[in-house]
């Protein structure tokens, strides 16, 4: 006997497509980081990106706009007199056919004919009243009687369609047996809901009910609660439909409902059902209303469906707003979005939710001790790498960019080697590294001929001429003018690019970031990136130089490199008691103590470069004098070139004037 494996294939329905490409977070991370550097919190920045969307993707705002357009379209297309008009047409048909029959019937007594014609002539103007008055009329025309009976059948199907979607079509041309089956379903349903309201165990009753009447419920509920949810939403929409009608329309329909299938029992069962659903789901909107202004008439069932659509659209609007506490895009009802706006809208929303999830689960955002989201070190590294790559392109373009790499960038080779240490950027000595691996393998009893596994201890790097390590301080102006003149974000991008370069390519160097406004403060890169724009006045370069001097003294064997980014003259200095003294225009004492501190740094061999932002003549004169005084440099870059200018000056100081730009940039 041979067994054959059989496979069945179908549409994947288990969540996100497992074969779909992973979500590209680069665009999201760049946009979020840009907003964070502009002063927004990471949570707000993430929400803003999700609201705006990407270059080729809709955002939540656009989806919300389409939801509102869909809502307005439904209200502007329809009106709610569809059932009344249909009943009126059937009534007019019945009366016309009866008059024709009366005129044709020569055997009828003239007095009776006149009486019947008078009855038809004097019917009330109200459609409901006319239908009720003719309930006991003895129709002479079979076609008239058929039209009138269709009124009762229509009303029965409509009132059922209000509670059970699709019932109007299902019961068209229904037999007495079909109508009795519906009555039996209603009786069983009311009994089931009655038990549920009393808190009785209804699991077995529910299974029995669905086995018997499940065809009436295309939603396929899996529990009593799901059944109640589906029925209550529909019943509440039916009540909102009535509330949306004019008082005259509402009264007409209520009076006509008594004629549904010609059965008072049916209406009693439906009233009992409504009462149970109201009690079980009081939180549904049972009293709302809408204003319809279109030309397309709706019947009771279709109108209830439209009110359900509007309620679903309102829920989607709330979900898309993300304004409630604890909101995430996982809250979005993608099935509802697909029903209302199409499958592409659901795909867009699912992608946005995946971006939100990946930004947090992927480690790019993490919660701090205060519970708020922050850019993680992983996100900072990725962002720094991107910014450094952009800076390298600017440097290569500016220098002509040869596609070469010089091993001697870290110093000329001496011919000797040494064991690799963390942070080393020197090239490997491959011969000695492989020899070490062979010796270690043999010492461990292994056979080198069967393969080698390198260990960290095997690696040797070529010795180079001594290269001076640098202690680098980036002094970044964070006074109010930096924010007001649009230099805040470029300053942060510059700091992040420099930080990434030092931490990944020149690990032997040390970098300190110092901000100076009214006071100066040493910061790590995460703090600087998240620093909001400061509104206080003051450019306390004096305090910043004091902190720079302290950092240089902590690294006495390294070459001190000072990089100052500013857009204004010093307007504050630190007093002996630690307070900051502010004065505009600059006080002579502020200038004196600032220059004195810079002189001290110069005597310690500090290489200084000033990056002057803007065209202020006073600042131009001041930094020019400072640079000449200490044999420093002044660079006046455009705001967009600040990163390349700072990184370039760092490399120039690091390699002491040797060509670096092309070789370094080619390796990024």
| Strand residue content | 5-15%
Largest sheet: 6 strands, mixed
The dominant shape is: elongated
Question: What portion of residues is helical?
Answer: 55-70%
Q: CA-to-CA gap between the ends? A: 64 Å
Which structural class is indicated by helix and strand composition? Answer: alpha/beta
Mean pLDDT score: 84
Q: How many β-strands, per DSSP? A: 14
Alpha-carbon Rg, integer: 41 Å
Uncertain stretches = 1-16, 399-410, 661-667
Strand order of the largest sheet: 9-8-7-10-13-14
Helix tally equals 26
Describe the structure.
The chain is elongated and about 130 Å long. The model is unreliable at 1-16, 399-410 and 661-667 (pLDDT under 50). Strand 13 (607-612), helix 24 and strand 14 (633-635) form a beta-alpha-beta unit. The protein is of the alpha/beta class. The strands form 5 sheets. It has a 6-stranded mixed β-sheet, sandwiched between helices. A two-stranded parallel sheet has the order 1-2. A two-stranded antiparallel ribbon has the order 3-4. The protein has 26 helices and 14 strands. It has helices spanning 26-37, 42-52, 60-77, 82-104, 110-121, 127-133, 142-163, 167-170, 176-197, 203-213, 224-244, 247-257, 264-280, 300-321, 334-341, 343-361, 377-399, 430-443, 480-484, 488-504, 525-530, 541-554, 588-603, 617-630, 642-654, 661-666; strands spanning 78-79, 296-297, 365-367, 373-375, 413-419, 460-464, 470-477, 510-516, 520-523, 559-566, 572-574, 580-582, 607-612, 633-635. Helix 3 runs antiparallel to helix 14, helix 4 (82-104) runs antiparallel to helix 5 and helix 17 (377-399) packs across helix 20. The longest helix has 23 residues, at 82-104. The relative contact order is 0.08.
